[in-house]
Amino acid sequence: MHAHLQIAFLALSAGSLQDQDARRASDLPRVLFLTHSAGFTHPVVARPAPGELAHAERALLDAAAGRLEVVPTQDCSAIGAENLARFDAVLFYTTGELPIPPAGRAALMAWLRAGGAFAGSHCATDTLYEYAPYMDMIGGAFDGHPWHQEVGVRVEDARHPAVAHLGAGFRIADEIYQFRDFRRHPLRVLMTLDASSVEIGKGKRADGDFALAWCKEYGRGRVFYTALGHREEVWTDPRFQEHLMAGIEWAIDGPDYSPPAPAGATVLFDGTHLDGWRHAGGEAARWRIVDAALEVTPGSGDLMTRAALDGRFLLHVEFLVPETSGDRGGQDRGNSGVYVHGRYEVQILDSFGLEPGPGDCGAIYGKHVPRLDACKPAGEWQSYDIAFTPSEHDAAGKKTANARMTVWLNGLEIHHDVEVDGTTGGALAADEPRSGPLVLQDHGHLVRFRNVWALPRWRVRSEAHR
């Protein structure tokens, strides 16, 4: 083991978390590797004796040499605000209800939302079941391992650094997890099980969708998870080592990642043309395409899709708020909006660091305040995932149920299945039809949009798990 990593490990093993800065021996990004087992103890993290590292710890230290400074620990007291401030990333390989006090759990979530990086391997989905924020963050809960064999793995998007070296797919022998409470959005799935490589009937998912790695934003922070990592030989497999290392590095400060539209989605803007857009009076779109993004042309008017969105769907929109001078306030800070059906506005504004209000970024304008600030600073790309269910009307046209919306801002759920009791200010009309266009607002600011798509018939909770 490298000397500086040996020192860091011994300091944590002795419970001395306060003087880590003095012991730091490099300027590499620091990763806290927690391998506490409050449930099943996987052999790869079982330490042979006090003061000795487990197989996974040794393998990660070797893989990280010259790239990351890894500090292994099995001490859950390392998860606290003061100590987390000393690290760039946290990697969990844990089981069961970890003995992290409530203040430590809350500190982990706050640290991550503020720009920290979280990575999990294998059983990181088999831990902290009773802490809802963690389960929402990690993206799925362990629901058995139907297969322990050589399997085929399919790479869904080779542009992401964590899987770029794996080609279109590969084969590996490992224990394969399946998940409940898993949904593909706002997760960005990177790898899936090749269903043809196993006896798929052993699994529980009716849709056969067995994701094996994914990533997501979490406010200003990022999350990376891989289900691989049960077997000892996997931890020494160069493919897995690069997969895990590159995933951690991406979560710390990797390139901006704009995921592709999923299968079955209607692509509304792909960065190349504006054929599917027009202004309210029917005029051809006068907004500009700049660096494959759609930019507001101030004074030209709102832009809307020529096609209507019908029924229940998930809408994905990425946006960038321009930096504005410090003397601007109120609504004069990178203002725009996403109008679902042209009737219900989800506000866009430079609201970073502010206590959210009914007119701030993420608000369903004037009706619902975001439950937390999930914004990034102006000048950074952000994302909305909006699950929409239209209002219902009887045969006479009387409304019998309000529209409903769930909204994620930068991967954080800021509205959960809220009722929207009518149109918001600036709507195309006061009626509430079952279908309508997507409208992007011209409020006089150079807001940009990219990767806009809608996925029909999507529900907030996965319908696939049985």
Describe the protein:
The chain has 466 residues and is an alpha+beta fold. It has two domains: 3-253, 3-Layer(aba) Sandwich (Rossmann fold); 266-456, Jelly Rolls, CATH 2.60.120. The chain is built from eight helices and 28 strands. It has helices spanning 3-13, 20-23, 55-64, 81-84, 102-113, 132-138, 232-235, 238-253, and strands at residues 30-34, 69-73, 89-92, 117-121, 141-142, 147-155, 169-176, 179-180, 188-193, 211-218, 221-226, 266-269, 277-279, 288-290, 293-295, 303-305, 309-310, 313-320, 336-340, 344-348, 381-389, 392-393, 399-401, 403-409, 412-420, 435-436, 439-440, 448-456. The strands form six sheets. It has a nine-stranded mixed sheet with strand order 2-1-3-4-11-10-9-6-7. Strands 12, 14, 15, 18, 21, 24, 25 and 28 form an eight-stranded antiparallel sheet that branches. It has a five-stranded antiparallel sheet with strand order 13-16-27-19-20, with no helix packed on it. Helix 3 (55-64) packs across helix 8. The chain is globular. The chain starts with a helix and ends in a 10-residue tail after the last strand.
